[in-house]
Specification:
The complex is a heterodimer of chains A (300) and B (432). With 300 residues, chain A is mainly α. Chain A is 75% helix and 0% strand. The longest helix of chain A is centred in the first third of the chain and has 41 residues. Chain B is an alpha+beta fold. The longest helix of chain B is centred in the first third of the chain and has 28 residues. Classes of the chains: A mainly alpha (300), B alpha+beta (432).
Chain lengths: 300, 432
């Protein structure tokens, strides 16, 4: 009797939950689901921006085009290169900052706020700002480096494609490390203090504590943070677009998709590129979740 | 219950307020014509003045929507508005290479402007803007690339204004070395080298200044890019990077170039004519120290040229105020307004007879040079390639940018580019 009562209650609760979720689900299916399905549909057509209604079904032609196009290959490589390096740097630096912020130092509150400033600036603004700071003739970075004596001649940071990619990564690290630090700090603060107290009582060296206690306990938080950042990094657009423009040497997948969609009016090819990007991101998420060693219920 | 009531009250206020204010705004905008204007240099100011004159004349209202500086960004935004059939912009400022791209969305202006008025415009411009017999845009102002130079430095080192690119390279080197001795670091030459439409213009006009170096695509649609003379020109340009031109030019648009030239850090600059009045304004450090000339010839048997650039005004098919909007276009591209713009802003008129107008020539020494260059002007292959133009241009600028960043020679990069263009057009036979 009691169990039946409980299951009725559970049913009732589940029903209520669905009712409350319904508006959100509706909104999401309108603003995310519908455009997504539309994009996938367009990727199988020859739709053109100048006359969308004349689109014809062309099966996999757009995808074939992408696999043959060397610029798309470069874009995929650039995106992966950017994502791997920037996320790795951000994780390490973010962890360091999180550990510092987690310790008992004076002015902690102020420090936490200050660290967040780069993250609070819209990317487009910080990209433009860094573009000016990295300018080869009147940029402040070159001026400072010459003054210190690190370099003799000003460097054209955003001009040479290889150097430009490094500049883009550095700017992204500057901007997104605070986000990483914040996620990891939240993880640190949720950790049970008993382990640390026990370690202290046993007189274990702090570095050993970090490797044996802090890091394993922080692993779920790190994985969640890395997933968030990787997914974001794969979609990188604004930084690259503002700092280097339409060069196919530094293009990311999103920049490529935009160029096809709007500059070239090839809605079909652009949609195919977006669809592939979506599939890649989906695949990465699944891999992370399967092999990251965390279960759904730990991601909170 | 009380809370619910308060909540409902707030909701009501918000919803009501929205409709009240949104409605209010709507009413005031209903009869205002919306026009997009560029923001480069004096563009916004002169556009605003022109629109104000029209408002005063007709008693109607018009609104200006600023458009981004980069022509690629501008095109992207316009295409989104147009593809969505949006009626909020009536008049678009469109580039000379866009008519083929946008014609589906634009209204035929022959319906609104009488033929005898159209006959006064430079015929190539009207031809350029006519697609399938429809005049989709009215020519507003044109521009070509010019060479700006530091008069004072040329005098100091006793050098003439260079007539060929080779001479310019030599002069630039001499002045750079000379100034270095006095402790002043100055660059020889700045141009628009970022991977964007501007690079297509810069590279194409340099190629076309040689005896027969070239075009990307000839007037019949055949791909002509892959030839040794064109490659030689771009290889030379690539050699200049890091020697007479800063490496940063690989990321410069026109305003970056002006920034460097105006602060006195370059001897020569390739730029559009909009920079002239700005460089001569009272707060400009190089005021009175500069000169302007047609771009140099490519070798002794080459010729002075420049890429034809410029902007037109077009009427959106989706406009709800076509009569008023067309009238605004007719006014802004009319002879009187073109004359005013030429005098206050230095904008080159699209009506041929204005180049003989005494006041215009007196206000702007460039008019005389322009009149000469008009005969040997270089057109981008917009007409031949129609809606594919932006892809053609992107293939071209990427191959040039690759060469300039020392990633392969021009021969190699042009060969790859020509292949791409071939597959884009069925070997140059079918562009549409």
């Amino acid at each position: 009797m009691a169990s039946k009562f409980r299951s009725d209650l559970t049913k009732e609760r589940t029903r209520a939950a669905w009712v409350f979720m319904l508006p959100t689900l509706l909104v999401i299916s309108f603003v995310a689901g519908w455009p997504l399905l539309r994009t996938i549909w367009f990727s199988f057509t020859d739709a053109s921006l100048s006359n969308m209604s004349a689109a014809q079904f062309t099966a996999f032609e757009n995808f074939e085009f992408l696999f043959k196009d060397s610029s798309w290959g470069t874009a995929v490589k650039n995106t992966l290169y950017f994502a791997v390096i920037s996320v790795a740097l951000e994780t390490v630096l973010g962890l360091v900052i999180a550990l510092v912020l987690n310790s008992q130092i004076k002015g902690k509150g102020l420090l936490r706020t200050a660290v967040l400033i780069p993250w609070a600036i819209p990317t487009i603004v910080s990209a433009k700002m860094w573009g000016w700071m990295l300018h080869d003739v009147y940029g402040v970075i070159n001026d400072m480096l010459i003054w210190v004596g690190f370099i003799q001649q000003p460097i054209a940071w955003a001009a040479d494609p290889k150097l430009a990619m490094i500049s883009v990564i550095l700017v992204d690290v500057w901007k997104t490390t605070p986000f990483m630090a914040l996620l990891l700090l939240a993880g640190l603060q949720l950790m049970p203090q008993e382990c640390f107290e026990a370690a202290r009582v046993d007189g274990i060296h702090p570095i050993r504590v970090f490797w044996r206690v802090t890091l394993p306990l922080l692993k779920p938080a790190i994985i969640v943070a890395v997933i968030f950042r990787s997914l974001d990094a794969m979609r990188v657009f604004d930084l690259i677009y503002v700092l280097t423009g339409g060069s196919s040497e530094t293009m990311s997948m999103s920049v490529y998709a935009r160029q096809q969609l709007f500059d070239f009016q090839n809605v079909g090819v652009g949609s195919a590129a977006s669809t592939l990007l979506f599939l890649m991101i989906g695949l990465f998420t699944i891999i992370f979740l399967l092999f990251g060693g965390i279960k759904g219920d730990k991601i909170k | 219950m009380k809370k619910l009531l308060i909540g409902l009250l707030f909701l009501g206020l918000i919803v009501g307020g929205y409709f009240y204010f949104a409605d209010g705004e709507d009413n005031s905008d209903n009869d205002a014509v919306t026009i997009t204007c560029g923001m480069v240099g004096l563009e916004h100011k002169t556009c605003k003045e022109g629109v104000a004159l029209w408002e005063k004349k007709t008693g109607k209202k018009a609104k200006i929507l600023p458009a981004p500086n980069g022509s690629n960004e501008r095109l992207t935004i316009f295409q989104q508005y147009l593809a969505a059939g949006d009626a909020s912009i009536d008049v678009y400022q469109v580039d000379v290479v866009w008519p083929g791209l946008l014609e589906n969305h634009l209204e035929d202006l022959k319906k609104y402007i009488p033929q005898e008025e159209l006959d006064t415009y430079i015929p190539t411009l009207i031809e350029n803007n006519t697609v399938n017999g429809r005049l989709v845009a009215m020519p507003w102002f044109i521009q070509v690339g010019f060479m700006y130079y530091r008069k004072d430095l040329l005098e100091k080192y006793n050098r003439p204004v260079p007539q060929t690119w080779e001479e310019m390279e030599e002069t630039a080197k001499i002045i750079m070395e000379g100034e270095k001795k006095t402790g002043d670091n100055i660059w020889g030459y700045v141009f628009q080298g970022k991977a964007y439409e501007g690079l297509t213009c810069n590279a194409l006009e340099m190629m076309n200044s040689t005896k027969d170096g070239g075009t990307i695509i000839d007037h019949k649609g055949k791909i002509t890019l892959n030839n040794s003379q064109a490659a030689g020109v771009i290889n030379r340009l690539s050699r200049w990077i890091g020697t007479i031109a800063p490496e940063g030019v690989l990321n410069y648009e026109q305003e970056d170039c002006r920034g460097i030239f105006q602060s006195g850090k370059a001897v020569f600059m390739r730029n559009w004519p909009y920079a002239w009045p700005l460089l001569n304004s009272d707060d400009s450090p190089v005021k009175g120290k500069i000169g302007i000339a047609p771009l140099p010839k490519g070798g002794k048997d080459g010729h002075h040229t420049g890429v034809l650039g410029g902007w037109n005004l077009a009427l959106s098919k989706y406009s709800k105020r076509k009569e008023d909007a067309a009238d605004l276009i007719r006014f802004l591209t009319g002879k009187k307004e073109l004359r005013r713009r030429a005098i206050v802003g230095g904008y080159f008129p699209t009506i041929e007879s204005l180049y003989n107008d005494k006041d215009i020539v007196a206000a702007n020494p460039l008019m005389k040079i322009m009149k000469k260059v008009l005969k040997t002007i270089t057109a981008r292959p917009g007409g031949q390639t129609g809606s594919k133009y932006s892809q053609v241009s992107s293939v071209f600028w990427n191959s040039v940018h690759k060469t300039l960043s020392k990633n392969g020679t021009a021969e190699e990069n042009f060969a790859t580019a020509a292949e791409k263009l071939n597959s884009l057009s069925k070997n140059g036979t079918k562009w549409y």
